[in-house]
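Translate sequence into structure tokens.
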Amino acid sequence: MISSRQGSTCPFGSTVTDTGVNFSVYAPNAEKVYLCLFDGFGRCEKNRLEMYSHEGGIWSIFVDSLTSGALYGYRADGKYNHLDGHFFNVNKLLLDPYAKDFSGDFTWSERHYCHLPVGEFNSLDNAIDMPKCKVAKVQAYTGKKPNTPWQDTFIYECHVKGATQLHPQIDKSKVGKFAALTDPAFLLHLKSLGVTAIELLPVHAFVSEQFLTTKGLQNYWGYNTLSFFVPHRAYCVNGDMTEFVDMVRQFHEHKIEVIIDVVYNHTAEGGIDGPMLSFKGLNNNGYYRTINSPESVYINDTGCGNTVNIDDPITLKLIMDSLRYWVEVMGVDGFRFDLATILGRTIDGFSCRHAFFQAVLQDPVLSSVKLIAEPWDVGPGGYQLGAFPSPWREWNDKYRDIVRRFWRGDSGTLPELAKRIHGSNDLFEHNQRGPLNSINFLTSHDGYSLADWVSYEQKHNEANGENNRDGHSENYSFNCGFEGDVDNSEVVQLRHKMQTNALITLFMSKGVPMIAAGTELKHSQAGNNNAYCQDNEVSWLNWSEYGGSQTLISSISELMKLRSQLSVFQHPFFVHADDERFSVEWLNKETRPMSEHDWHDEGNKTLMYILADKLTSKAVMVLLNADTERLSITLPPPPFSSNWECVFTSEQVNDSDVLPISFCLTGQSAWVLMSNLEENTNG
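Result follows.
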């Protein structure tokens, strides 16, 4: 006979003690809540124990002699009225929102549904199709973190599985897993590029939507969260959650930070016609935003069926507890927040003074980690680039779009291009933030890869099963004259050159650079710009050309080394005309200061600029020519020496790297020049 008694309300979840396990869960409107204990296989419900009610809607129970590894779930009983948003149903096994581990897998079935009137589906028990929560004894992370300053950060956005699934040098038993990311072959690759932070697509436990599984597809990206605490088990070799911590520790030993992509804006429970897995059955109207009447209608500012209600204090606490857990226990260094505008939404819209932002700012743990917002959602007023408070960083899609448009050859791009290269002061300086608040990128997991950006003018998403209707139609892409893969050597070379041009722009811009995994390998998705459901060779990186001369590995490595030598890119403030140390000079085709006419000349597709540091006597001149025509230019005198040295270009430079005063700026090319530092030192 199992022995139990009233437990403690704090902390939420299951907590292992010397004499047993304490369970605490929030279900304010339930009439009864049960703790269900299962056998070691998770198949048989051995005990159903009624929990004790406390003030504030919290339920608890302490089970004597229970230990870590025990499998459990909850059932909540009470009012069922889907029009009022109450879905209490004792027939549905519910996951603990604070569970730290799972055992078993989720299986789609009609037993999960709760939106129909009481009848056939609501009377079905779903336990057989549910993973079981697993009692875990957790300990704080003890590794030494790199704490890389933002000014030295270079982010590599990466999918756990896709990065290594096809890697020929990694043992087959661990490809596609957390462990593969710290295999020497992959670690050395990251270090050779100069990467300082790996940003992982969602690693929280997730499930595939039923509309995908019925088509034989899977949610590959992972933006369909099942738990805010449990790592995705499919990424573990042996299903052991400590594999994630081991990965983090090894990254830290190599001075690489780990940033995880988190989805606190919606959950896998979807809308009213979605499954009931956890939150719906415990406190539906608290965890999710619904309209006033009927409350069964979910507000869908995410486009994924539901929107997490962060105005609710218990929901806010859940997210804060989850964030601290991943920092303190799992060891991560920061977060990229998917659809982050949701986190600042109230019933009146987005506010940079939302309780969530204030809670993070005053939190001694979270205020010091890297915080990156995807600053938009699909709801009204959802585009909020530049509106997040310090110390938040933001994905700058305006940077992405203008660089793509410029190199595509669009007219009238120079004024905005200069703003983005300068760090987007128009977006960030208004609330005393600097250029390092801008995460600059050319491509990410969402959209074309860099190789496809110069190979496709039309999206090719037929494999997603939505008749090519999904994904953005305007990608500011161009195909260099031929759609898709070609054998034409001239086209292949032009595409290589245009990708290099874009990368030169990225690394010679103020802000924090980020590339999508596979950029360096010229990874192609065959024109699919929404490969969220392609868990196959479309998304997995192809390493067959690794080490070849046609990759972009050496280019990225060299550009990052150059960037690290230039203090102007480490400067945390915007440079203005009265700056005593730094200067920025924008030049026209005659290498004279840009005039108003030059800026607004629609046909002008050439931009040149000089960034100088008077203290270190270093200067860099960047020449970006998106015009197809050659241009003869006369270089201005370098600020600190007698010559300009070409340190990087998308063209082939013969003989000496020291450029003559007058030379030909070839069409569709980019150049990085520096003062002849050796001559300056000796002179």
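Note: The first strand starts at residue 4 and ends at 5.
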